[in-house]
Design brief:
The complex is a heterotrimer. Chain A contains 18 helices and 27 strands. Helices cover 71% and strands 0% of the residues of chain C. The chains are: A alpha+beta, B mainly alpha, C mainly alpha.
């Protein structure tokens, strides 16, 4: 599919022009007179260094990246006007847009243009351990980057920058050389290491670089004109922005409030903010009020993070073998049970996912339901959304909550497990995070399963842990038997959703399940460590790892690649190792004067934090309008994917 | 942030300070009655009777009886005491009553749909919360938890405070050391100490009690120490020491009985104080796990729905219970402190 | 006198040293995952080690403690914030916030004293009558209702009834009214209660009876005698109260978006900003110790009968 490697610039320009023209010539109906976004926020900007933190979404409006996404999730040129990929897929060359100025926060020009060298500066800074950038490892798939980082970490600091595959081959030509072909490289560029940095300014500022809104340079759509910590932050449209035609919002006013989640909704009713999320506990009251019901809509799933939530069966139990209310936790009993596929399937089919999700959103829980681990509208090929691929269709097309099926598996499990000497009920340890909605979820799900399958079959021992170190204490340490966990994508490829279950990640230690892998020693070249710090045993011939390796060996043809990865995911579901639940990040309801379908759509990277293409509307969208717009958006996205595939455009 | 200090000290601390200061003052005054002010015509000669002389001096004044007499004279106090006893009894009896719901259980209707945000009705007396749990039973379960914390904290503070305070006050050579330790503890902001300990030990019922005791014993021992300093060198103790009574016995038999009223006051006020501290810790996200009903958790959950008229009952009931408990303990403590003041015994 | 103050200052320094060291070491007991900004799962061990090394957390505890004191004492350097605002010196962060809190706090304190003490006097003079009953009801309500609840109620309902802004806005003076009301309520109650009790007690004292017998009106007695005597314990607590206004109020500042010091200590602990926590603890211990010293001196000036030097261990 990507055999034609040179990208046809003209086609891309045409498609972006089409959208631009469509929106520019006539602004949509019902827009507000003042294009001002007003927000309330409760966590203050802790770090103004755009190269520093892992979640650098706040800068997406101040600094542009090489590429970005449009509102249908299609890759668009941004500071890179065009790009090519070498025959072997290892070298990517970007043609940088000329004439983009570096500016101070007040809009005056710094006196330099954005050039290819600026990305080299960023990479060099991030890869210097002295700067403690928290995203250095995101760059490790560039040739020489990891070695350079490790060399710079030693006292000699003898890293050889020339060996790192990030080069400015001409003033406006940037080249990346990768360690292996990466079909999803473009999506990787939308993280903060894809921000350019002016070397001269960085050197001049030294320690003070990026300590507040005035100490870094801007080249994005907005300038942060005023910032008063724990008080307010005001952005204004950058008059010199290269793509100003797509920036309709003139001002973004943010008010800090530590209790934003409680006050936001009230502030919206008084017209003091333009977007407010309605706390789950309040939604009921809003929807019952005829006036308020007209200005509130479900939040759009998958825009924020695309974190997929699922239940895990643990194959390395380490929890304390204690007795709670007369039920005794026992590793041996649990391992016998969890290694029985019928037991796993009885929970897999018995879990009422919709009921669980309704603790997050009781009105439209179905909208957040996932039947596969990889969410919908994440990637697509052959004109099909990934969960609809042949391997996954049996799961995604049918409701997976099947009480009768669950009871059949329960009967089988009882028979087999009794023979194996297991005593009933099987006692499962279910930890949860205490300061989130997870509490309600754990209570509801455990009671639902116990009621359906019988308290004499399975009993859950619930225990709450605070958010500090939650995952380390529970999931990673194997301190659970059945619990909910989650995974967010790092790049636009379904491979990202295979990572958590593979060797090296502390999810559910599937390699320890009966017959899944062979234990070996450190000396065995084929052996890989389970997970450093938690399961430091060595394993080889892990069935799942081999399947993933085989599927991801295909780097060029996305259709073949995705279908292969879909089979590995189907295998996880077929064996009931994982019980998909839903997208639980952006559940609940919002009231907003913005149209969620106008914002840049990308389940990874920083593009979705941008306000490009968006308008402020007079009236907030209601649920009906939202549903209509969602259907329209899905159809348009499918059409655009088809078009891009037909014309060999990267997307 | 409220640093626990005057005059920003929480109300109870100030109130207690005042009460205790007043008691100390009363004891001091009692010491210094000036004989010159008493006129002669108040006295008359008593005849000499040999039988009487053989009898051991006896007065029918009993501190405790007078205290209770004064206390029970006030109808309000009696009413409050009865109310509190009833409340306490009810929190423990409630789960045993018929038709009570399980505070942890999520209730579904016949169709299997969760009964969320049900307004108070015959089935759910105080309605249900946003995941379909019964608020009535959660409130009583929460009250049990919070009262348990309060009682544990009060008891531990008393025991540690009395033991250390007695040693501090009585043993002169330890005074310097204890004073320095006191200064040290008193100068670490309580919030810092509480939060760090909560993080290090992880929030749970046990941690919460430990943390509150760690920051609470110090005040109690200071008061005990001051009172002991007043009593230590009073004549009857000097006499007792001269007769060879060991220190331990002097502390336990001669001094501690004088401190009972202080201890009772401390206990009465420690409970609402602990509930307040629990609400605060919950507010900053360091309270008990949300799944365990406690008054702090219930109030925090209720605050989130304060803006929605139809759900306001979820805040109203827990606040009513907290207020009732606080007011009763406060008023009782007040009445008892008055009653135990010997100057009111006539 | 001077010797006494110097001695107390000397002991205060030791106390501050110990307090700060204890908090420093307690902070080191916190789990290290807090330093990775939620990327624990993804971050490679190499990067994690670099971060911990950069924060100096890989050194043994005594070396960390020694380095901290060396920097503080020799260079006067409290360090830079590591989370709340990366790389910004903590002193630069704390001062502006402290000043905002001070501004609100000092007004609220004045209101508390003025309204609270007046109310207390009135209640005492009308003991048992309507004014007293209303006052007592107010005191009871303020102390029985959780502050987190009635502050929120004031913010939401009063702002819509009185048409006042919901959040603090530095340019708009009327936006300060509600937070100041909230800040004052508790103090008014406790001042009124204290004053009332004090008045009632003093009214039975001999010198008051004498004054009444001399023919002074009860109003004159209240203001010339009782108030004057009441001023002595107040003089002792006032310096601490004034100094502590800079620490702000967590509830009020969070609700009204006031950029004060209120939630900073809590936030610093929650986000494991070690340098921030150390600086704040230093600030608070200095304030509390100097507040006590100033209070004792003030009390001595107000009441010549009090001699501090006699029993130095009084505090």
């Amino acid at each position: 599919m990507r055999k034609i490697l040179a990208l046809l610039l003209s086609i891309l320009m045409l498609s972006s022009l089409m959208t631009a023209l469509g929106e520019q010539s006539a602004p949509p109906e019902g827009i507000a007179k003042q294009q001002v976004v007003k927000l309330m926020y409760s966590s203050e900007m802790a770090d103004w260094n755009p190269l520093h933190p892992s979640a650098a979404g706040d800068w997406a409006n101040y600094i542009d990246t090489l590429v970005e996404y449009d509102n249908y999730g299609m890759v668009q040129p941004c500071l890179a006007e065009s790009w090519t990929q070498s025959e072997d897929g290892l070298t990517w060359t970007f043609k940088i847009r000329e004439g983009v100025k570096w500016q101070y926060y007040d809009g005056t020009e710094y006196g330099a243009d954005v050039v290819a060298e600026d990305w080299v500066t960023s990479a060099k800074w991030i890869l210097d351990p002295q700067n403690t950038a928290r995203t250095a490892d995101l760059l490790f798939d560039v040739v020489g980057a990891e070695d350079y980082y490790k060399a710079m970490e030693t006292t000699e600091r003898n890293g050889d920058w020339d060996s790192v595959g990030i080069k400015a081959t001409a003033p406006y030509e940037l080249q990346f050389t990768l360690t292996g072909p990466s079909p999803y490289f473009l999506s990787r560029l939308t993280y903060n290491w894809g921000y350019p940095t002016n070397a001269q300014y960085l050197a001049d500022m030294g320690e003070t670089f990026g300590t507040d809104n005035t100490t870094f340079l801007y080249c994005g759509a907005f300038l942060c004109k005023q910032w008063e910590p724990n008080s307010y932050r005001i952005d204004e449209r950058n008059p010199l922005y290269w793509d100003i035609a797509d920036i309709h919002i003139e001002r973004i006013e943010r008010r800090y409030n530590a209790e934003a989640s409680v006050l936001e909704a009230e502030a919206l009713l008084r017209g003091e903010v333009t977007t407010a999320s309605i706390p789950p506990a309040q939604v009921d009251g809003w929807l019952k009020d005829p006036e308020r019901a007209q200005i509130v809509r479900p939040s759009r799933p998958g825009t924020g993070s695309n974190y997929s939530y699922f239940y895990l069966f643990n194959f390395m139990p380490t929890y304390e073998e204690k007795t709670v209310d007369g039920y005794t936790l026992n590793h041996e009993q649990w391992l016998k049970a969890v290694n029985n596929i019928n037991f796993r399937k009885s929970l897999y089919y018995g879990l009422d996912r919709v009921k669980g999700i309704s603790t997050y959103n009781q009105y439209t829980p179905e909208a957040y339901l996932l039947r596969t681990i990889t969410p919908n509208n994440f990637v697509a090929a052959d004109g099909k959304d990934y969960p609809d691929f042949d391997a996954l269709a049996p799961f995604s097309s049918v409701d997976q909550f099947q009480p009768d099926t669950a009871l059949e598996y329960k009967a089988k499990a009882i028979e087999e497990l009794t023979a194996a000497g297991v005593t009933f009920p099987i006692v499962a340890y279910m930890p949860y995070q205490t300061d989130t909605t997870q509490v309600s979820l754990a209570v509801v799900v455990s009671q639902q399963l116990e009621e359906l399958l019988g308290k004499d079959y399975v009993h859950f021992v619930l225990e709450g842990y605070p958010s500090t170190d939650f995952l380390k204490i529970t999931r990673r340490s194997g301190n659970y038997s059945f619990m909910m966990s989650w995974w967010g994508p790092d790049y636009a490829d379904p491979e990202t959703y295979t990572d958590p279950f593979n060797l090296g990640q502390a999810y559910s230690y599937i390699w320890r399940a009966d017959g899944m892998a062979t234990q070996t020693t450190q000396d065995d070249p084929a052996g890989r460590m389970g997970r450093s710090g938690f399961d430091e045993t060595y394993w080889k011939d892990f069935i799942y790892a081999d399947m993933v390796a085989k599927a991801t060996a295909e780097k060029i043809d996305n259709s073949v690649r995705y279908n292969g990865i879909a089979e590995t995911e189907a295998w996880l579901l077929e064996n009931a190792f994982i019980v998909p639940l839903g997208l639980l990040e952006d559940t609940g309801y919002v009231s907003s004067n913005l149209n969620p379908f106008e914002s840049q759509y990308a389940p990874f990277g920083l593009s979705n934090a941008r306000y490009k293409y968006q308008w402020v509307y007079e009236k907030q969208m209601n649920t009906e309008e939202y549903n209509a717009a969602l259907a329209e958006w899905e159809a348009e996205r499918a059409r655009r994917i088809e078009y891009a595939e037909a014309n060999n455009i990267d997307y | 942030m409220k640093i626990d200090r005057q005059p920003y000290r929480p109300f109870f601390r100030r109130f207690k300070d005042y009460k205790l200061d007043k008691m100390q003052q009363a004891f001091r005054d009692a010491e210094q009655a000036d004989p010159a002010e008493i006129s002669d015509d108040l006295f008359e000669f008593a005849g000499h009777d040999i039988m009487d002389a053989e009898r051991i001096g006896y007065s029918n004044y009993s501190y405790w009886r007078s205290t209770f007499q004064v206390f029970f004279k006030k109808k309000v106090s009696v009413f409050l005491l009865a109310f509190l006893v009833a409340l306490l009894a009810f929190t423990f009896i409630q789960p045993l009553l018929p038709n009570q719901k399980d505070p942890y259980r999520v209730y579904n209707d016949e169709a299997g749909k969760t009964l969320m945000n049900v307004q108070p009705n015959e089935e759910f007396w105080f309605g249900t919360n946003n995941i379909g749990q019964d608020i009535w039973s959660r409130i009583w379960s929460g009250t049990r938890t919070s009262l348990f914390i309060g009682l544990c904290v009060a008891m531990s503070n008393n025991i540690i405070g009395i033991v250390l305070g007695s040693i501090w006050g009585y043993a002169r050579k330890w005074d310097k050391l204890f004073t320095e330790v006191y200064n040290l503890f008193d100068n670490i902001p309580y919030t810092v100490l509480r939060m760090l300990l909560m993080y290090i030990m992880r929030p749970s019922l046990k941690t919460m009690i430990i943390v509150m005791v760690l920051t609470g014993w110090i005040g109690m021992s200071k008061y005990i120490r001051n009172l002991i300093l007043i009593y230590r060198d009073r004549e009857f103790n000097l006499a007792s020491r001269c007769l060879g009574t060991p220190s331990r016995r002097i502390i336990i038999k001669n001094i501690l009985p004088q401190l009972i009223s202080v201890i009772m006051l401390q206990t009465a006020l420690a409970i609402p104080e602990a509930i307040g501290a629990e609400v605060f810790l919950t507010y900053i996200g360091l309270g008990l796990p949300v799944s365990i009903p406690s008054l702090g958790n219930l109030i925090n959950e209720g605050r989130r729905v304060m803006l929605v008229a139809s759900q306001r009952y979820q805040l109203l009931y827990p606040v009513l219970v907290v207020s009732a408990i606080t007011i009763s303990f406060y008023a009782l403590g007040n009445a008892f402190a008055d009653a135990s003041d010997p100057r009111n015994h006539r | 006198m001077v010797r006494y103050i110097l001695g107390r200052l000397g002991r205060a320094l030791i106390t501050i040293f110990l307090v700060l060291s204890i908090v420093f070491l307690l902070m080191r007991l916190l789990p290290v995952d807090g330093y990775f900004e939620g990327r624990t799962d993804l971050m490679s061990d190499t990067v994690k080690n670099v971060i911990l090394k950069d924060l100096g957390l890989l050194d043994p505890w005594y070396k960390q403690l020694f380095d901290f004191w060396r920097k503080l004492l020799l260079e006067g350097d409290l360090g830079k914030s590591i989370v709340i605002r990366k790389n910004v010196p903590v002193a630069r962060l704390i001062w502006p916030k402290a000043m905002v809190s001070f501004e609100f706090g000092i007004i609220a304190l004045a209101i508390q004293q003025l309204v609270g003490l007046t109310a207390g006097v009135l209640m005492a003079r009308h003991k048992g009558r309507l004014a007293d009953k209303l006052g007592n009801l107010y005191i009871l309500l303020i102390n029985a209702l959780p502050a987190a609840v009635y502050f929120l109620a004031i913010q939401l309902y009063l702002s819509s009834v009185l048409k006042l802004p919901m959040l603090y806005d530095p340019i708009n003076t009327s936006s300060r009214i509600l937070p100041i009301i909230c800040l004052s309520l508790g103090g008014i109650a406790s001042n009124a209660m204290w004053m009332r009790r004090y008045m009632v007690d003093q009214m039975n004292m001999d010198y008051i009876r004498l004054a009444r017998a001399k023919g002074m009106t009860s109003g004159q007695v209240a203001f010339r005698h009782v108030m004057r005597n009441a001023f002595i314990p107040m003089a002792q607590s006032l310096p601490t109260a004034v100094l502590f206004t800079i620490s702000g109020s967590l509830y009020v500042e969070s609700l009204f978006s006031i950029p004060g010091l209120g939630g900073l200590l809590i936030q610093s602990i929650q986000r494991q900003d070690n340098t921030m926590v150390q600086a704040m603890v230093l600030l608070y211990s200095v304030i509390s110790i100097s507040g006590l010293l100033l209070g004792d001196i003030a009390m001595m000036i107000c009441d010549p009968r009090i001699k501090l030097t006699k029993k130095g261990e009084s505090r």
